[in-house]
Amino acid sequence: MEQEMNRPRIIVTGGAGFIGSHTAVALSEAGYRPVIIDDLRNSHESVISSMEDILQSPLEWHRVDCGDKAGMSAVFSEPVAGAIHFAADKAVGESVANPEKYFDNNIGGTARFVSLLREHNVPHLVFSSSCTVYGEAQQLPVTESAPLLPAASPYGFTKQACEFLLQSTHAAAEGKLGMAILRYFNPVGAHPSAKIGELPLGPPSNLVPFLTQAVSGLRGPLTVFGDDYPTPDGTCIRDYLHVCDLAEAHVAALKWLEKNPSSIDTFNLGTGKGTSVKEVVASFQRSTGLQVPHQMGARRPGDVAAIYADPSKATQQLGWTSKRTLDTCLADAWRWQKQMGAE
Ligand code: WQD
Question: Which is the closest atom of ligand 1 to the Cα of 235?
Fold first, then answer.
């Protein structure tokens, strides 16, 4: 226990969420002490105990909104070596239907949280951004120097606004708060233990959880949102990245900040490979031998035709690269789905 208490404490907002929970596990395995901050508006308390099960050790967690100054005071009563900010709403389609919720939580919540970090002299911040900041990128694979085109959804706009907020705050803080802005492509899959994974409350908006629920019979057939896009098979192309690869990238970003304390930089986190919706379906069917009940449907508002990463900057500067294949992503996602059904 003594050794645990000496580990650097890293705040993980949204730490009971999909990427947050996998990152907290990776942080602990890398010798940090993750401090989970989550108000459970979009997750379950059971995720905390599942993480403790994987780590075989207790986790410090606080059921609080990360922007709640009074509620967060207990968190800052001990030294904080860094923070990773995941807490946000992230469904592209939902943001089109309810933009004000996304502006308040994603932009307002980030501003309130960053103010607390500055007030308590926290030196490092890793921020969860998204490839949606690129809009309909004209050049693929997309690099970090690509222009940020008008966002295709309110969700994408909130990530663009948060990036501008962080650039402004970094300058105002005169380098006292180093930042790594991570632009995720499409995180999918689950921890190989099948103890944590993507836990959508209600009908999933994302492809892979909907697909595994359709295969398990929990839902009707998967609807492929549009097969008339200007792509080889007519369906949208994305860069699907294993959530454990993504979690490991956050540890690499933290270590980069420890070596470059007053810096701010942006990194694409993807595999560098574009995969269409039809190819995801085919990959799942091939790797599991199971049929995916699916049908063609209309396009979804807010979707771009194709986007996938050039991840070479993260490889060169963070020493990170994705290691897991799409088949592994889908096999892990399916194992997680089956385990949930068994509960
Ligand atoms: C992928 C493709 C859909 C559901 C996600 C996150 C966002 C950001 C980027 C992190 C699209 C198609 C989907 C379905 C379908 N990640 N689809 N039928 O929209 O690329 O964005 O990754 O910040 O937060 O939401 O992912 O999984 O929703 O869609 O055909 O039932 O699958 O049209 O082409 P998206 P997604």
Answer: 34
- Express each pLDDT in 68-90 by its tens digit: 999 999 999 999 999 999 999 98
d(CA 80, CA 175): 17
Architecture of domain 7-188+241-270 in CATH? Answer: 3-Layer(aba) Sandwich (3.40)
What is the distance in A from the centroid of ligand 1 to the CA of 96? 13
Q: Is 155 a catalytic residue?
A: yes
pLDDT in tens, 154-200: 999 999 999 999 999 999 999 899 999 999 999 999 999 999 999 87
Q: Give the span between the Cα atoms of 319 and 178, in whole angstroms.
A: 18
Give the distance between the most distant pair of CA atoms in the chain.
59
First-last CA distance in the chain: 32
Per-domain boundaries in the chain: 7-188+241-270
Establish whether residue 52 lines the binding site of ligand 1, counting it when its CB lies within 6 angstroms of any ligand atom: no
- What's the rounded Cα separation, in Å, for the pair 118 and 121? 5
